[in-house]
Design goal:
Blueprint: E1 2-4, H1 7-18, E2 24-29, H2 35-47, E3 50-55, H3 65-70, H4 75-84, E4 89-91, H5 95-98, H6 117-120, H7 124-139, E5 143-147, H8 151-164, E6 169-173, H9 193-198, H10 201-209, H11 218-230, E7 235-244, E8 260-268, E9 271-279
Parallel strand pairs: 1-4, 2-3, 2-5, 3-4, 5-6
Antiparallel strand pairs: 7-8, 8-9
Amino acid sequence: MKVIQSAALLRESLQKERQYNRQIGFVPTMGALHDGHINLADRCVSENDISVVSIFVNPTQFNDKRDLDTYPRTLDTDCALLERAGCDYVFAPSVEEMYPVPDTRVFDFGRVSQVMEGAARPGHFNGVAQIVSKLFAAVEPINAYFGEKDFQQIAVVRELVKQLKLPVVIRSCPTLREADGLAMSSRNTRLNVEQRRKAPLIARTLKESTGLTAAKSVQEVINYVVDTVNSDPVMRVEYYEIVDEATLKPVHRWSDSDHIVGCITVFCGEVRLIDNIRYDNKTYANRNT
């Protein structure tokens, strides 16, 4: 496995691979890798001839400097995990390498980047688009892999690919969870013992809410999730929205969409955790609520 810091050197190396008609797959990460990331890497390795994983904590997608400063950085450990997974290249650039000059591009993705995370973290998705477009330009992958825990981010990246007419297929992969249901996240390492014990309440409540749709309206289910999570003094729900999977428009009745997703962000102490769950519309007894 080769670890490369230079975008120019990465392009040169991958161009040599393309001379042999090797298909390149790519997994963008911010490091502090966990089993969810390794699952993405495993899939990338199995479905492509050459696998590339980037490790870069992107400053332009953080609207809270404290969050940027405290984001875990474990490059040596990450590289060891990726080598065991069979990855071919790790791209680990510096901030100066990716942003030799300020990136002033402003993207317009419409609603998919304006609601939920977009509303809570102004500028976040513009920063995501900046770095993902730079990484795609450096790697030029055929396939790129993203975890469904960052559900809204996938919608934004798909729109980015569409707008820029990039020849890359976005592959979404199911969220991996700990044994107690907590969605795997690099931020989980920042939870103290009590917070880590209580954090699975988020996933448990989401799962329980899927059994309420036959009897309760969309708003009643939202209220149930928010009230249940907020009942623990360690937790504070920033938002919980039930939306159409494709448009991210709010669903007001279960009959409004055939593909419904609930998206939540919760502060567990000072650690911001996200999760989501799908609602199977075939189970709804009352289609008018």
